[in-house]
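[audit] Reproducing an earlier prediction to check determinism. Same input, same settings, fresh worker. If the tokens differ from the archived copy the diff job will pick it up downstream; this log only records the rerun itself.
[audit] input (501 residues):
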Amino acid sequence: MNSSQLLARNARKYPHQEAVVSMGKRVTYQQLDRSVNQFGHALLTAGITPGAKVALFLPNVEEFVIAYFAIQRIGAVVVPLNVKLTPVELEYILNHSDAEGLIAHELLFDTVRNLKAPSLLVKTGEAVGNWLSFQAMLQSGSDQAIECQLTDDDESTILYTSGTTGDPKGVLFSYRNILTVASMIAVEMEVKPESRLLLMMPLSHSAPLHLFLMAGMLVGSTLVLTPTFTPDLLIDSVQTEKTTHFFGAPVAYLLTAGHPNLQEADLTSMKWWVYGGAPLSSNEVEMVKAAFRTEHLVCVYGLTEAGPSGSLLHAEEHKRKAGSVGCRAPLHTELRIVDDHGRDVKPGEVGEIVLYGEGNMLGYYKNKEATEAAFLNGWLKTGDLAKFDEDGYIWIVDRKKDLIISGGVNIYPKEIEETILAYPGVKEVAVIGVPHPEWGETVKAVFAAGSPIDPDELKKFLHARLASFKIPRLYEQVEALPRNASGKILKQPLREGVEIG
């Protein structure tokens, strides 16, 4: 089974069912399947062959869905790109992925127009220079059915990681990997043909693409796409389209919770409010539940390399365990917390989460060394340090690479960062370890705030809340912390060149 066959099957089963709703346009499964055949033929005519890599630089629009399935229908491999990437970042990924084609949106054209890009260049809107028109290709392509014969174990997609510690790595997936996690979401979150999935988070990320778009395609749901996220757009889309499922980062919920129109909004169609990327605290959970007037808030934990998959914290569990990422792995996945020797840790002990299942990636594209380092006896190492509590619930402590060892004591920056964020005025913070001649490392806090903050006052605040060995000795206030295109804080630039005597 492959993704293209799912779409063709839905076109036969549900020809008049809405497949995609985007920018006011409504497309049935029959119409979508026809467009995918047309664009697939156009790609073949343009020289794209089975196994070739084709990159997508598109927001969440109808053209993304058409191109995604058309590339796979002709046996090529799709490479979705984050629309916030810079030309330098794009050029690296296009070269590394061996992309032979690039499909871009006209609103993003200024970013790509001067790239030393692949041989096939396509943009939405009108053709420009050596860039072909997406719409013209679509109209010129035959609608004769293309039979895709790829199997579960053939290569499907390459997603590039954020690159917080170096160059982005290409995570290579088979159809089996993707359909495994799609079926997991369909079962765990009751995705059905009558479901209407609201896709606002970028489809260049694994959770929106593999979990929700593909779960919807698996069962024949309606996919409601918006090219960006705003609280206004979220509220309006739910009310207008009567959506049933939404996945968003915690910040999407927190921003919308304060919107003045939320209390009057009709959100009764929603059955699953799903968040992931980071846990919400107990106070944040209560605020979001009250603002959205819902008891259907669900946390998902996972990472791109696992499909994504990892663990679930269901709605009823939030009452006692908000901030945790749940007590079990979902369908098709196994989870353990292990020490450096691969042995299971006891409750209360900190170890690394490892995952096992058919959702795990094939490996990093063209990086055998990194692929081998990512696995421990077949289990995927997440890099997340965590512990089980007495009830078996999983609590993320920190990223393994961010662990600070000072005087032989393990210090977890995440705990310190959460405490500093509670100080009035602090907007964002990164806690890092910097070299120290006696202790090995010492703790430094780099933060941004709306106005100048006295480090001594901040230190007093922390002393009342944290053990003394966790209190940063060094403080630096900056205008903003460095972030990558996915919005993740980059700690490596903060560490580089930092040395104290």
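[audit] rerun output stored. Observation attached for the diff report: The longest helix spans residues 29-45.
[audit] end
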